Amino acid sequence: MKKLTGILTALVLFVSASSFAPNEEIVSAKIKSAFEKTFTSASEVKWNKSDGFYFANFKINQQVLTAAFNDEGELVGASRNISLSQLPMNVSLALQNHYADYTIASVTEMTTEGQTNYYIAAENSKRIVTIKADAFGDLSIHKKTKKK
Predict the structure, then answer these.
(1) Which of 9, 22, 94, 115 is the most buried if burial means most Cβ atoms within 10 Å?
(2) Per-residue pLDDT tens digits for 22-44
């Protein structure tokens, strides 16, 4: 579970970054092949390695995505930034009910182990939070910080 949390955190950080320094040499042929098989229409692919995982930052249909692979070339997660209007209805309604006094800064959609979760960065006058939501609209605080 700790390893999965590390992967999720790394994916969120990499998705938030504007770009990676290109480094094709760090990726094995096995990983490149797995990537190309899964993301056939990917363009502008840039690679980075962190915490034992290989991250590809790329575009499909002008949408920026990030995918994480392990040493065996297995896809362990993928993420992308989405707009608030792209959230499932259950999540949108739950946010309106529980976080009406917060301003949404960004939304990241993340898929790992066949599960899709959403990480919503939001703030109000007192705190900054990252809210984790599943497709059913169940919300939890992933991270919170008091404003100074």
Answers:
(1) 94
(2) 455 688 999 999 999 999 999 99
| 89-110 confidence digits (pLDDT tens) | 999 999 999 999 999 999 999 9
Cα torsion through 41, 43, 45, 51, rounded to 10: -40
Under 8 Å between Cβ of 74 and 54: no
Burial 111-125 (b: 16+ CB within 10 A, else e): ebeeeebbbbbbeee
CATH of 2-76, one of 3.40.1190.20, 3.40.50.2300, 3.40.190.10, 3.10.450.360: 3.10.450.360
- State how beta strands 115-123 and 43-50 pair: unpaired
Q: Hey, do 2-76 and 83-146 end up sharing a CATH topology, with the first three levels equal? A: yes
